[in-house]
């Protein structure tokens, strides 16, 4: 169900999310996100996410019409030429196709642990702040069958526009637990009265429930990737671009594992490290 409106001015309050694309915290506070680009918006329209509006140049309307007609919620489609739209958003765009949708509520850890096929494969990120890297990591997670992403309390949201764009819309297929957004209704075995759980506490909880937590850590000399065992339930933990995994999070893990590198290289990009780890998990599990 959708209705079409030609944009003749930027005064409509409904257009505000597009005008504030450089202020992503405002979107987070409102519980919304912006999807950008033809492929990503198409994938959003194919998803179960709740969509408020779409903005596109008229030449794309026929392409998107079947997907828009299939949507259950009322969506406003604003028609605007790319150049005009660029004056609203404040930067130049490749295709001029955008959409605003609602960030889904965080999934519960109980559901993730009880409703997924075993062995579980989870990924957690600690203090990952670069949205592009987070998006690339999300894309890898979906490519390798990760069942949920746990976003540490000091990490960026995977629903930032650049993260959504870099995930190529894979974020619409990945259940996410953003620890910073968990409320009172989430209670845990190891911390029954918690309002907010830190990533270190969440990993402790996972371990208490039989999930092995494995830190991807370039500086360990204890174990390299090919020696690690991913056959049981596990959660792979990745760290920040600048500082890697923080000490409390590293301590909360069962073990640290490195992709071996020559001493002249500090580390891999976190998205690349995730792809290498996840490929090894898939390789080992395909054998067993
Ligand atoms: C860019 S690296 C962090 C580099 C940081 N300067 C450090 O000293 O850890 C970002 C994350 O990618 C993962 N990573 C990168 N290279 C890795 C490697 N060779 N082995 C295991 N994990 C790696 C780790 O989770 C790391 O925290």
What is the structural class? Answer: alpha/beta
Terminal-residue CA separation: 47 Å
Sequence of secondary-structure elements: EHHEHEHEHEHEHEHEHEEHEH
What is the topology, as strand order, of the major beta sheet?
Answer: 8-7-6-10-9-11
Mass-distribution shape: elongated
Largest sheet: 6 strands, parallel
Query: From the alpha-carbon coordinates, what is the Rg to the nearest angstrom?
Result: 20 Å
Give helix % range: 25-40%
- Contiguous low-pLDDT stretches (5 residues minimum) are none
Q: Count every beta strand, where a strand is a DSSP E run of 2 or more residues.
A: 11
Strand proportion = 15-25%
Can you count the helices? 11
Q: What bound compounds does this protein have?
A: S-adenosylmethionine
Overall mean pLDDT stands at: 91
* Quaternary structure type: single chain
